[in-house]
Design a protein that fits this description.
The chain has 107 residues and is mostly helical. Helices cover 46% and strands 9% of the residues. It is built from 5 helices and 2 strands; from the N terminus they run αααβαβα.
Length: 107
């Protein structure tokens, strides 16, 4: 997908069974199990990311939903691989992330 093809030299290809096995072993999506319980993650992506497409975040969120596990999801329409299209959007994204961490790590 997108720029992923350029990474096969470094990570491998899903077309090669041994490499696919390795890729699945490092994939957070493939590590989700239906009988496990997870802390509530903040899943965020940008719609226009051409390096790590939003499909990965969407699939992860869908799997969490399928397993009835809580999660927060934020997909920014603007921007690309970064956290925002401009300084205002970037500041909002950082504020969201810090707020999430504060809510999860502080009493």
């Amino acid at each position: 997908m997108s720029a992923g093809a350029s990474w096969t030299g470094e990570y491998g290809s899903v077309s090669v069974p041994e490499e696919r096995k390795f890729l699945a072993s490092i994939s957070p999506y493939n590590q989700l199990k239906p009988d496990a319980h997870y802390p509530e993650p903040l899943i965020f992506t940008t719609t226009a990311d051409d390096r790590v497409g939003p499909v990965h975040a969407r699939k992860f969120a869908a799997r969490m939903e399928e397993f009835h596990e809580p999660f927060l999801y934020d997909e920014i329409v603007e921007g690309g691989h970064g956290v925002g299209a401009d300084s205002k959007q970037e500041a909002k994204s950082w504020a969201d992330q810090y707020t999430y961490l504060m809510m999860k790590l502080m009493d």
